[in-house]
Specification:
alpha+beta, about 100 residues
């Protein structure tokens, strides 16, 4: 596990995402690489699916120390599982007409 993800409902109809990458003793080059990877994964994987699913709210993605050694594909896979959980949770809490 490379990421900690928190989601909270919001009155806004859009999804807002924050990305946190602590230093953990790494230099700025490594830290910025992780930030760029996470922003790209969030923009390509998380946002489109949450906006279509109607799961508006605030999401915070925090990188854990192991994220520095993770590949782009590993981060993408982990965000994919998070998206599945969030869309399933929002579908379960959505009222049926």
């Amino acid at each position: 596990m490379h990421l900690e993800v928190r989601h909270i409902a919001s009155l806004l109809r859009r999804v807002r995402v924050g990305v946190i990458v602590p230093k953990y003793g790494h230099n700025s080059v490594e830290r910025n690489l992780v930030k760029r990877r996470l922003r790209t994964v969030v923009r390509c994987e998380l946002l489109p699916k949450l906006e279509v699913g109607g799961a508006g709210g605030d999401v915070v993605v925090r990188a854990l120390p192991s994220a520095y050694g993770a590949s782009f594909a590993a981060l993408q896979l982990e965000i994919g599982t998070v998206v599945a959980k969030l869309t399933a949770a929002s579908a379960a809490t959505r009222p049926t007409p």
